[in-house]
Each structure stands twice: as C-alpha cells, then as structure tokens.
Amino acid sequence: MLTRAPSTTTTTMELEEPQHELPGLQFKEPLSWRAGKPIAIADLLRRLQTLSKEMKSMEQEENERDSFLKVAKELASPNLLGHKDKGVKAWTACCLVDILRLCAPDAPYTGQQLKDIFNMLITSILPALADPSNAYNAQHLYVLNSLAQVKSIVLLTDIPSSEPLMIHLFTSFFDIMAGSSKSSNGEQLGKIVEFNMTSILVVLVDESATLPPEVIDVIVAQFLRTDPRAMGGPTGKNKKGAAAVDEKQSTLLLKEPPPAYNMAKTICNTCPEKMARYISQYFNDVIVDASSSSSASKPSIKKGSNRRISDDLDDSDLDIASGPTDEDLKELRKVHQLLRELWRACPGVLQNVIPQLEAELNAENVHLRSLATETFGDMVSGIGAAGLPPPPVLDPAAYPPISLSDTPELGAYQNVLTKPSSPQPFPQAHPQAYASFLRRCHDKSPIIRSVWTTGIGRILVTSAGGVGLGQQEEERLIKGLASMMGDADEKVRIAAVKVIGTFSFRDVILKLGSFGGLQKSGAVLASLADRVRDTKHTVRVEAMTVLARLWGVAAGSIAAGEEQVISVIGAAPSVILDTYYANDLEINVLLDHVMFEQLLPLNYPPIKTKGAKLTNGNSQLAKNSQTNGNNETENVDPDKIRTERILLCAKDLDERAKKVFYAFQTRQLNLAKFMAVYLERCENYNGGVMESNEKEIVEHLKRLIENLARQLPDSSKARDCLWKFAKMHNRRCYQLIRFCMGPETDYRNVVKSIKEFVRRIEESTTTSQELLNVLIPLIYRVSVLVYNKSHVSSIMQYSRTNDNGMGATAHELLRDISNLSPEILKAQIQEICTLLQDAAPNASKANDPGAVDNLQACASFASKYAKEMPQDRNFFQAMTNFALYGTPAEAAKYAVTIIMTALNKKEILAKELVNKCVKDFEYGAAGFLSRLATLSQLMLLAPEQVNRESDAVSDIAIQEVLLQVRTESTDASQSYGWSSDVEVECEAKCWALKILVNRIRSHVEPETVSEIAKPVYKVLLNLINNQGECSPTKNTPPTHKSRLRLLAARLFLKLCTKKHTDSLLLPTAFNSLALVAQDSLLPVRSSFLQRLKKYLGQQKLSQRFYTIPFLLAFEPNTTLKAETTTWIRSRATHFRDLKDQEASSSTNTVIESVFARLLSLLAHHPDYDATAEDLIDFARYILFYLHPVATEENISLIYHIAQRLKQMRDAITPSAQYDDNLYHISDLAQLTIRKFEEAHNWNIQTMPGKMRLPHSLFTEVRDHEEAQQIAEKNYLPEGVEDGVEGLVRTSMRAARTQGKKRRSEGLENGDDRGNKRTKHLPIRKAPPKEKKAREPTTSKMPKLKKRKGGDEVTSSARRRSGRVNVSGGRYAERDDEEDDEEMGEGVAAWKYENGAVVNEDGEVIDEDGESEEESEGEEEAEEQEATPKPSPKSKKAEAGRRNGKQGGKGR
C-alpha cells in the first residue's frame, strides 16, 4: 500500500537495469497524440479499458515499476486530463489511481502533474458520485475505493497551494452525501460510498499539517444537518446572507442522522486532538468577531465581579442598546447550536471550547451570557441541534386517563435526533464549568435567570441526557427551580412555571412530587401553587393553567385512590378556586377558562354517545389521548364519567374552595336570568332599528351592558363588544345562548351550542377574537355545565352506592341542585319519590339518613312544580311517616313542606299531623324531635291549623322544652363553650324556639303582630343578654347556651327581614344583638356574621345592620377579619357605583350614614370608658371603619356626621352620662378623621346644610347656648391626640405593608384562636406608653389643617391587636341551612325596570327572596369543631396583665 509520497519530485527519471527480472506492464498502445491528430474516442476508450483491466490485476511489489513510467506519463498528459468525453476521463482516472497504487510510495509525477491529476479527480470524477445512475458510476466508485484503501489521497497534502482542492474535496463529499443522494430513478447511494469518503477525509485531516478554515467550516456545518431549519445558508464566521428557511418545513425533521453528519462525526472522533484545536479556534474567532462588533460601539464600563453597574440598572438594559448586530447574533446562535450537537456527537473535540464557553458565562454582554447559559443547559441535558423532543401530551380531556401504573410512553423519544442523549455526565467531565453554570441563578439579569431556569428544567426532564442525576444533585436542581418560582422578576417566574409544564405526568409525581406536594412549604409544586395568586396576571395565567392541567391528567389516578398522586396534586382544585377570594376580575375570567377547559373540560370524555361502537380504532378518543392500553369504551357512559370528574373535583375541596364551587352554581342560575333579559333587550333593539319605545329600549340595554361589562376586567372593551354583539343581531346566536342556559338542555347539546356559537362569531366578524374574549367567559358562567340534567341520574347513583367514597359529595350536590335548580330534577322526580316511598320510616323502623337529601330535593321541586308531584295515597302516607318518625328531624320538616305544597287536600292532613304531634307528646319518646320539627314547619305553612292547638303547642315549646334542663354539664369549670356535637336536648330547644318565631313569621296582620311578637322577642333578647341561659335554675349546659345564643341572634335577623317585625326590634335590643359579633366563641360570631352578610347582600335587612361588621376591629381571627374587611370594601364600592349611576348623588349615602349609628353603638358599648387609654382603643373601631370606606370624596361627609353628634342628645337612654359618652366619641371620631385625612394628604371641605340623623338614636339639642358650649368644648382627655396620631401612623404602615404583599387579599388562612378578653368582648387596651411632654389642650376644637398633594396610600390594612393572646384549633361549620349560601354574600342587589332583582355582579335574585322552606332550613345551628373558651377577666385584671408586657406600639 501507499504510505507516503516523496516530499520532492525529480524532473527527470533515470532508468536503471533491474537486478532481477520481474514481469512488467504488457500494454504498448499509445495514449497520447500530436496536435491535430487525436485518437478516436472509441479507440481511446478501448485502449484505456484494456490498460485499466491489466493494471487492476497487478500488485505493487510483483511488477517492474519502470514498466509503468511511459503509461504514467501519457495518462498525465493534458489531452486525457482535460478530455471532453466523460468516459475518457472516467477510465483515465481509473488508470491513474492504479498507477499511484503500483508505483507507491514514489509517485512517478512532478508536483504540477499531481496537482493536475487531483484537480481532475476532485472536480470531475468524485463529484459524479452524486448520481448513482451515471453510466460510468462503476469507474467513479473504483477511483473512490482506490483513493480510500491505498490512501494515495495523502499526496494531496504535499502539493503546493492545494488548499482550494482540499476545500473542494470536503465540500463535494459532504454535498454528495447530504444533497444529490438519489439519481433520477431513485437509486440510493450505498453505504460503501459513505465509508470510503469518510476514510479519505480522515486521512487528509490526520496527515495535513494545517487545515484551511473553510474546511473546518464545512465539517462543523454538518452537525447542523440534524435540523433542516438551521441549514438556511452557509455557516462560518465570515459567511453572510444565509437564505431564510421556509417555516412550513419546520416539521420535516429527520428521523436518523444523515450520512454527512455521520462522516463529520467520524472525522472528529477519529482525530480528536487535531479537531479539538481547529474547533477551538473556530469558536474563538466567531465569538471574538461578535464581541468586537458590540464593544466597538459600547461605552466603557468598569467591570466588577458581578458585572453590576448599579443596583437599579439591569445590565440587559445596556447590552440591548449597544449589543451585537442581528447578523452577529445569528452567527452566535448557530455556533452555540453547533456546540450542543458536538457534545452529543464527539465531546472529545470540545475540551478546549468548554473553558471558552465558561468564560462567556461571565461576559459583560447579556446576549453572550444568555447563549452560554442556554447552551450549557442543553449540553448537560443532551439536547442537540435538532432541538427538544415533542413535549409530553398532558390532555385533561383524554380518556381513559393515565395512571402511574401504566408503562411509560416511548413515543416522544422515537426520533433518535431529538432524543436527549449525553455521551458522558457533563458535571463529572467539566465540574468547574458546571459549577459556573449553576451560579447563573444569581445573575443580575432576569433574562439570564429565565434561561437558567429553563435549562435546569430540561436537565431534570431529561435526567441529564439519560445518564441520570444523583439524589443530591436532583434535589439541588429542584430547589433551584422552586426558588426561581419566587423570583422578583415576572419573566423568571413565568419561565419556571412553563418548565413545570414540560414535565410528564410521571415526572411531576415521581420527581417533583418526591420533595413535597402542593401543601408542603418550600416544595416546587407548593411554589407553583403560590404562583396562581401572583401579582402579575401573565404569571397567574400560566401557573393556573399548568396546575389545572396537571390535576386534570391526574384525575384518573386520584379517582383510583393512588395515595402518592393524591398527596402531590390532589389539592389543586382548592388552590385554584381559592383565588376567587382575591376579588380580581382578571382572576375570575381566568377561573372560568380553567374550570371548563382544564378541570372540567367541555369535551370530556371524548366519547360521542353511550354505547356507540368505535369506528376506525380510537376515532372517538381525543387526539393524542393518553390511553392506558384499554381502548374498549363501547360500554362506558360519558355522562357518568363526566359526573365522576365533577364529584372528584368537589370532593376534596377545602371549606373556602367549596364555597366558591357552590357559589359558581348560584352565579350560573342568577346570571342566566340576567342574560335572558339582555338577550330579550337585544331582540327589541333589533340591531338599532326600532319602531317604538326606542329611548326606553336603548336606555335599558345600556344599563344591562354596563352591569355585564362591570364583571369583566376591561369594562370599556367589554362594553364595546357587548354593543357590537347587540348590533350584529344574530338571532341564531341568541338562541344558542338560550340553549346553553336552559335547564332542559342536556350536556351534549350545551357543548354543541357553545361550539356553534364560537364558529358563528368567528365567521361573522373580523374582530371575532376580541368579541369571543368577552362573550366566552359570560357563556361559561351562564351555561348549565355542572348542574345539568344529564348528570342528575349519575349523581343519584353515587349517592346511593358511595362508589369511590363520593356518596357524601353526591348528596351535597343533589341538595344544592334541589335548592338552586329543582327543574333539573324533572326527569328524576318520580324515581326520587319512589325511593322515598320505599325508605319511609315508622314507629319501629328508622329511615336511611341519606333520605334527607332526597326529601330536600323533592321539597324544593314541589315548591315550584307542585302539579308534577305524584298524588297517590301511598306517597303522602310515606311523607306523613317522615313527618312523625323521620330522622334526623330535618327529614320531618321537608316532608311537611312536600305535603303542604303538593297535596290537594293539605289542610286535612295538616290538621291530622297537628293532632298526632300534640296528643300525648312526651319528651324523649320515639320521634319527639320529628314532631317538634313538624310543628315548627306547620306553624309556618299551616298556621290556621296549628293555632287551633296554640295553647298546647306553646306549652310543649316553652314549659316542656325551653324551661327544662335535663342534661347535666360535663365540665363544671366551663360556663360557656362550644361543641361540634349537638345534643338531643339542645336540638329540641332549637326547634322549640323556631316554633315560637315561626308563629310571628306566619302572622299575616302587621297591625296585630306586636302582641304576638313581644313575648317572643323578650325570650330571644334574654338568650342573647344572658349568654344563652333560658332556665330559671341557671343550669343550662355551656355548649347548649352558645348554640341557643347563636340561634336567637340568627332568628332576630330572620325576623328583621320583614319591615313590620324589624320595627319591633328596639335600639337597645339592636345593640345587644350587635354584640353577638364579639362573642367569645369564634363559631358563634363567625356564623352570626355569615348570616348577617348574606341578608345584607340580598337587601333583606335595613341599613342599620351595616353597623355590626365594624365591631370586628379587634377580631383575633385573621381570616374572619380579612373576609369581613373585604366584604365591607365591596359594599362600599358598590354603593359608590350606585351613587355614580344615579342622577342625584345625595340619594345613596348608606355606608356613610351608618357612621352615626356606629358612633352611637360605641357610646353604648359595655366596655366604653372615658379614660384616655379606652378612648385610644375605641379609635381602632373608627379606623376600622375609615380604611375600607373613606375616600377623598366622602371624607368630608363622614367628618360632618361626626360633628353633628355634638348637636344631639342620646335618645336610646336619655341621660347626661350617655350624652357625655356621645360627645367623647364625637370628638374622638373628629380627631381620628383629621389624622387619617392628614396621612392621606386629603382636604376636608365644609358641608352645606345638615345631615339628618336617626330619630330613634338622637334628639336635637334645642337650647342654642348649650349647643354652642357643647360644640366648642373638647371632651378628650390629655394624651388622646398623641395616642390617636400614633395609632393612625401604625395603621398606615400596616396598610402599606399589606399592599406590597403578593398574596391577594383574603387568601391568608388564619387559625381559629380562643382569646383572653376584657369582659366577654374582644376589646383590648393598649399597654402603657411613654408620653412626650406636650402643651395642655385648649378648650376649643383645633382648626382643620389644609393639605394638598402627596402620595396616596392604600387603605387595605389588616391588623390584629398585638395584645391578644390566642390559642385553639380550626373549626368547620356547615349544615343544611348553609347549603344554599353563595360565596359572594357581600354583593348588594338592586331592582331593574323589568322587576328582576340584580346584585353587584349582575346576578339575578328572585324578587320574593328565598322560599319559606329554604329559609326555614337556615335555622339549624352549625356544627363546629370545639373551640377553647377563654377565661373571662375583668378590665382591671386585663390592664394589670398588660402592664407587665412590652408596649404594643406599631403592632
């Protein structure tokens, strides 16, 4: 074989006689000719073929070398090398490579001759290999094979100025293997061609002293051939003007490495040392060129260890302005993309490049740092130029759902090019560079931190390119990802959230979940849960979508009871729904999308009809459906599958989230009524063409649109879109929305209607997306997607069978459906009645407790659709048995409701029931609680029949139940407590109280109701004032007293929903009722406030009841206080909105006028004292009012009301003492308002005229002189002003701090705490403070200071007294009376012209309010977990205790 040609060639060859005879070349025919006498082509071809055939059979050492010299000289003649015939050239090439083989190692040619020979071979013969169908392809292959095997190509390295030939050879070979690899007939190049070409190029790289830079460009460019998108043009540091790649071809990725890629890979792996040097220089040149272009125009900046110029100036701001050009950046990206692929293919050549890349991590230019950080992440992950594999399909609508027990899918890694693959562990191969990469998490630029976050996410997803991560390293990266979730920059947080979305379901549970789930603080998934409450909407959208999608995919495993999945992701619905408390319109719209696109997808399950056979395999499964290997869906019921998802979503919700879930269903019912009015007005509007009542229609439609738009984030855009929709006047769209809202529409048709609506909007307008962004959330809200008639049958089935532990949740849903939309039960009412008839109890047989839900559903349905109830005797006999023996007692109440609403001869049956209940009534006998409940409901629904036995009924309720004590207290040391379990006697007394109250409620003559109500009011007031004690012997058990006090307060609220009974509650009784909000037990005050806010939101109570929530200034439970503050702020905002809408701004000052009532209540507060310390504490009540209510517009009115009190006397308890109390409170309020105004830089204006105050609370001071003296006198003792000023400053700081928190308002979870209280109220006095020396106050009120300008500070401070020592645990509260309570209980209602009563959110409420049986259902006391009762202390003892503690200033 040829080993090496001589370095110099001789000009003449001298012939020597051989020492021994060897056979020689026998060919003697001439191959050259004189000018003008050429050899015929046919003859020449014959001679060349003969010569080639002879030389092929000859070996190098077995023939006389000199015999080849003549032929060699002729073959190198220009006549043959430049011959025009391709055949002549092909056969000449074959002969030449044989000459080089036989004459090795000394080629019989001069340097110029060799150059001419290789020029012909490289430019003519070898490029012809691109066409396998060429007639002389065999000769071309022979030449290639000879050059590769004999290695005669090495002669090219000794030829002077051979660089162009070498460049041409490399370019041709790579182009052949990558480009024209097929002939016209489709014949493929053989593997032997690739092998020989590779061998030739390896020899050249190995033997060449240096390689031209263009050759290196060509070699490294082959590594980009795995991604056709990157092959838009030439590659290299000096190549410009690369052609753009058609984006439509981005999906045409190769499935295996192309031959050119393999050739380059072999070259690099065979000659790693040389290639490492060349590639290092290549990358260095490209990076230097790009860097120099930016540094030439960049101002001089002093370098620092962290590249920081200013703590406030991001280096990205500088770099973007004066960084590399677009062309430079394009080259840099391509170079770094090459690095990724080189690491995958031949990491050995990067030994000198990695330090350069590491240096880029510390570059001043943010673009270089970003590229380097991204490249390091991809190299560790084993991601090459072909990019990432397709992300895992996480489809929450897929069916069957996936499970952890399923075999992991390999589809994503079927493409070898995109499969992450690292040839060796990068952290071990380059530990220093890897450590530098990890430190980029602290980079000043958020761009770099975002890229770093994406990088470590890919490392985790790919397990470091398949080589695996150690447990410590994996934990380190996961903690880094969690920390990026809380980064200060939103771009970084979004990047971290998106990274979570790239994990497969198994990785989320097994990798991320192994370090904690959603509820473990510090875990990456817990950080993801925090991001759904992020301050930036873009982050919230991404986080909520990812979290909801993960839960939707995991729903199958959760339903199957896989504990690992439940512990990791099971709480996602609670986390998501809990964001509703943020009261943010953008979040609310996001919740709509997430609820019906991720948690409960519209198209789940993707099965068309029950029992439908599948066509073409999985045609009815969702595209990319995640199957578990079982595709048999022929016998599945899609409605049942969907119902299971709904129940699963509601099952594990916490109490707060559960309220939101049920509130959504209430909102659907109310908003659907509102939408129906809107659609009706749109039809009347007729696209703007009206024949009559134009002004009235337009005005009404305008108000409707205003209120609909107020529920969406961008109200102005929403308003425009709603007008545009009205002007489109698409009647089909109107009908489609009605289909979505109709309770008679099944689920399948609801979804079809939504899809058709979307299609029609898209086809009808050019701004369809903008219109859909407004309309789709509204359609989601009004559509019957959860409480649909298609789901009722399955819900009932789950309630009976309790499959997967969903029975209790099914009962809850069924109960809520019966309250909200009983019409949905039409199809199942006969089935429900049959079930009740079969389950009816009797004297010896009890009913199933689950029958209560069916009874409630049936009662709700009967109230609206009495004619559709069965009238057979057996059914009503069953209802009679429930009324007499039903357990629990609520069953009897619902049975009576069914009888009184559905039976034709109800009066007769009611009379029989009264007689049976009264006759031989005995406490403790079988069914006595049911009889009390029956009497209570009959007193409400059939008062005429019950009043015939009024004496006997009253005797039972009062003498035999209320005044008796049959249960001994279990804890003698406890005088007032709470228990989650309701004892039988306590329940009996509750029913007895309802009997008395229902008698008042059912009285139809307002003129005579006073006579009946006074004794009952006295009983209720005594229960409130005496801490629930109703027995003359004062031995009522403590747990009974708390429930009786709560029930008495709530019954008062119920009675006050009617005007004629509200007037019977005198101011003194009202003040006592208000103090229930400061009960020592959290369950009592929380339940009382919950009912109060509900009635106020429904406008069922007079405005004086708005006073009560302001007594929570010292509420120790942060959750209750925060929720109440949010509710007050919502009410204040609503009243301001109403005020803006009304023509006369003076007609709506509800929330401001309440201030006078609040000050009166404080003046009569049992803890009031005129000392400076007490007055400063009472200023907290005033601040608690001012923060959510006061604005720059109404502060003058509030101040005027405080002033007016000094022109009044107390009318509740006329006496000088209470007059002085009133004046002290008035001065305190004025002082607090002034300090509050100064803190906000507002300006109090003088109010014209006088504000009228309630005559029931105040009387005018008639004497002018006396009124003047009172007005001029300052009633505040010394030290109050300083104390109030400090208190205002503290509250303002708390407001600012609260405003900066990321957690949205109302999202904090406060623990239930018992408290040490002064007396029985949560009033706390401030600890002694060191007072500054000050001038004594004058006897006249100080003048107001006028201030202008200044920064406005948010008034959302939530404070808890620093002097409250609390303890205890959480409690749970809910019973049947709370089932219909909506979460937005603080939303007011008003009436529209059409009679619909609409609340703040545009939700329609029945004008008559709740039904009687539903109202009655709200009277049961709530079940709570036990809360420790605080030991009562006197004021002096409390003050003495505080004196030993640190001052509370600033807390």
Structure description:
By secondary structure, this protein is mainly alpha-helical. Among the domains are: 41-197; 352-408 and 422-570 and 605-636, Leucine-rich Repeat Variant (Alpha Horseshoe), CATH 1.25.10; 1106-1392 and 1427-1451, no CATH class. The chain has a three-stranded antiparallel beta sheet with strand order 5-6-7. Helix 28 runs antiparallel to helix 29 (694-709) and helix 31 packs antiparallel against helix 32 (747-764). The N and C termini lie far apart (94 Å). Residues 1-20, 180-184, 232-250, 294-321, 610-632 and 1300-1451 have low confidence and may be disordered.
Name the helicity range.
40-55%
Tell me the strand percentage band: under 5%
Low-confidence stretches: 1-20, 180-184, 232-250, 294-321, 610-632, 1300-1451
The end-to-end distance, rounded to whole angstroms, is: 94 Å
Helix-strand makeup class: mainly alpha
Topology:
Layout: H1 41-56, H2 69-75, H3 78-81, H4 86-102, H5 111-125, H6 137-150, H7 163-178, H8 191-207, H9 213-221, H10 259-270, H11 272-295, H12 315-322, H13 326-345, H14 353-361, H15 366-381, H16 426-429, H17 431-438, H18 446-462, H19 471-485, H20 490-501, H21 505-512, H22 524-531, H23 537-559, H24 563-569, H25 572-578, H26 585-599, H27 638-651, H28 655-685, H29 694-709, H30 715-728, H31 731-741, H32 747-764, H33 768-782, H34 789-801, H35 807-820, H36 829-838, H37 851-864, H38 873-885, H39 889-902, H40 906-918, H41 928-941, H42 943-947, H43 950-962, H44 984-1001, H45 1009-1025, H46 1038-1055, H47 1059-1062, H48 1067-1074, H49 1082-1097, H50 1118-1141, H51 1150-1163, H52 1172-1189, H53 1195-1204, E1 1208-1210, H54 1216-1240, E2 1258-1260, H55 1264-1272, H56 1280-1300, E3 1314-1315, E4 1366-1367, E5 1389-1391, E6 1397-1399, E7 1404-1405, H57 1412-1416, H58 1435-1443
Antiparallel strand pairs: 1-2, 3-4, 5-6, 6-7
Helix pairs in contact: 1-4, 4-5, 4-6, 5-7, 6-8, 7-8, 7-9, 7-10, 8-10, 9-11, 10-11, 11-13, 13-15, 14-15, 15-18, 18-19, 18-20, 19-20, 19-22, 20-23, 23-24, 23-26, 25-28, 27-34, 27-35, 28-29, 28-31, 29-30, 30-33, 31-32, 32-33, 34-35, 35-37, 36-37, 36-38, 37-39, 38-39, 38-41, 39-40, 39-41, ...
Subcellular location: Nucleus
Pfam families: PDS5 (PF20168)
Keywords: Cell cycle, Cell division, Mitosis, Nucleus
